[in-house]
Amino acid sequence: MSRDVPYEIADTMFVVEQIGRGYTNAVSALKEYITNCVDEYTKSRILGSPIRHPTIAVNINRDDHCITIQDFALGMSPGFLEQLPASIAKGFKRGNPDMRGEKAMGMHAWRSIGERAIILTRTHESNGSYACLRMENGKDKAIFELLDERIVERDLGPGFAQGTRVAIYGIQPSVLNKSFTLAGLQRALGQVYDPILREKEVIIQVGLDGSWKTIQPVARNGEIVLEDKVIVEFRKQGEFINGRFAIMLWLNPDGVSEKIGCYSKGVYLTDLCSMEEFDDFPWNSGKLSGFVDDNFCRPVQNREGYDKNTKAFEELVRILELYQPRVEEIVRRAEQEQEETKAQGIVQQLMAMFGKAYTQNPFTLGIRGPKGPPNGGSGGSGGGNGGARKGIPYAINIGEFGADEAHLRSTLGSIDDILINEGHPDYQRLVQGRPKGCKEAIQYLIALIAREAALADCSRGMKAQGKRLFPLGEDDSRAVQERAMALQLAVLQQIGIIKT
Questions:
Q1: CB of 329 within 8 A of CB of 255?
Q2: Residue 472 DSSP symbol
Q3: Rounded to an integer, what distance in angstroms lies between the CA atom of residue 480 and that of residue 475?
Q4: Given pLDDT bands bounded at 50, 70 and 90, which one contains residue 340?
Q5: What percent of the chain shows pLDDT beyond 90?
Q6: Among 40-49, 316-325, 372-381, which stretch is predicted with the lowest mean pLDDT?
Q7: Which residue intervals of 142-281 are DSSP H helices?
Q8: On the CB side of 451, how many CA atoms lie within 13 Å of its CA?
């Protein structure tokens, strides 16, 4: 025997308070009201009555422990405002791809910020009166009333021709001083509404102690490497759904902690790499910032992530998987260029050090011939990473060896050319991806260069005497080792690894 058992809420007020307190921080709760303001301007455009300057004003009043959020859109009718407390989870905007407040629960977000809230609204047809809704923690009923302009200006602040203002009172000083600073809100709201601000859909202004700042889109490091907008079509419960998807990425080659934000209809939800579906390369490379934005995925209640148990979220994952090879190529190319730049810097540094070592150590390797280093240490010209040289008479080039020489750490490319194999496992372990100036990397390279330079010195000396170059005799091999040790010691002393 079975029967249906309906769901019931035994303690409505408890549930309402839990909904209102379900935000991880005060700014997350605040964005519910700013997002509602954005929706009001969107609605005015849909209805054919666009507002010329769609401004949202967020004002922090420390003396009154209060913050207000104001739009100047069409406002709500008294009847609509009065029924809001009885409309929890009755989303009038639900299913509209252009509207953001779909769950009808954000009205209570003030409970994560302060102790009470007042919603004041007015339409251009209100005949001078305002509709007012008062809510307070611990009270199971909201108070609705109609107020004339005189009472509003006396008790609730400056009047306005049309629009809606939410005032949240009883905010703790710690919240005001940490979460609601001018600089903090500029930074936070610039991130939260980045796509909307870039499209100039609204103007958000924040005021504190009479000082007002216009919120700008979040500043990104690097340059734009990917920007795309597509129309998405997928099947949901037998119906074809059309949606919009946008991606905009910046690349910071030197970045280690850059993140890509996930946005729903232009409002920030979470970071892409914080989700298990995208916690690997290239999304977590730390070099990419920007956003992915869609209008078809459903956010969770507190707007800090996606409802993943949906066809829409599956579609979002599929779209990003299509972009992944292209993004991987962008990041890998940046990493390769970064490594090349780092290698060039290291080579220049080592060239200078070995040049000084040659000047200070005019050995002849025990081979009879002119004193001083080959060519008098005057250097020469060379290509690759070495560039112009002074002191050391060899170019130093870092690159990947061919298959026949892949096992070599280094070699002499010619009598004037020292080659270092960046494809060797030891190079990749000790140098690749290590920070510039890493002691292990520098020591590894010094040892290779010293050995090859000593061998080249010996070869020059032997050639000048008409001796056969290879194989080396015992005395010549010892001379090469001594010369390599002397050069290595001289350079290590320069960088302080070995004290003189």
A1: no
A2: P
A3: 9
A4: confident
A5: 57
A6: 372-381
A7: 149-155, 173-178, 182-192, 194-198
A8: 13
Mean pLDDT taken over the chain: 86
In angstroms, the CA 456 to CA 411 distance is 10
Every domain of the chain and the residues it spans = 12-214, 223-309, 334-494
In this structure, are strands 66-71 and 163-169 parallel, antiparallel, or unpaired?
A: antiparallel
Sign of CA dihedral 146, 151, 152, 156: negative
Please say whether the beta carbons of 452 and 411 come within 8 A: yes
How sure is the predictor about 369, in pLDDT bands with cuts at 50, 70 and 90? very low
Query: Is residue 92 over pLDDT 60?
Result: no
- How deeply is 39 buried, as exposed, middle or buried, from its count of CB atoms within 10 A (0-12, 13-18, 19+)? buried
Parallel, antiparallel or unpaired: strands 116-122 and 163-169: antiparallel
Q: Which amino acid is at 241?
A: I
d(CA 217, CA 55): 15
| Mean pLDDT score, 172-177 | 94
> Phi, psi at residue 317, to the nearest 5°?
-60, -45
Please, what is the end-to-end C-alpha distance for the chain in angstroms?
93
- pLDDT average, residue stretch 204-232: 95
Q: Give the angle subtended at the CA of 166 by the CAs of 160 and 169, to the nearest 5°.
A: 120
Q: Is pLDDT at 6 greater than 70 in this prediction? A: yes
Residue 30 near residue 113, CB atoms below 8 Å: yes
In 357-452, where do the E strands start and end? Answer: 395-399, 410-414, 417-421
The predicted model scores a pTM of 0.76
3-state SS assignment for residue 416 = coil
Is the distance from CB of 361 to CB of 391 less than 8 angstroms? no
Topology, domain 12-214: Heat Shock Protein 90 (3.30.565)
Name the residue with tokens 């992944």: 324
What pLDDT is recorded for position 112? 95
Q: Which two tokens stand for residue 494?
A: 């320069």
Determine the pLDDT at residue 434: 78
Provide the residue count of the chain. 500
CA distance 268 to 29: 12
d(CA 215, CA 376): 64
Closest CA to 220 of 245, 195, 244: 195
Q: Strand, helix or coil at 291?
A: strand
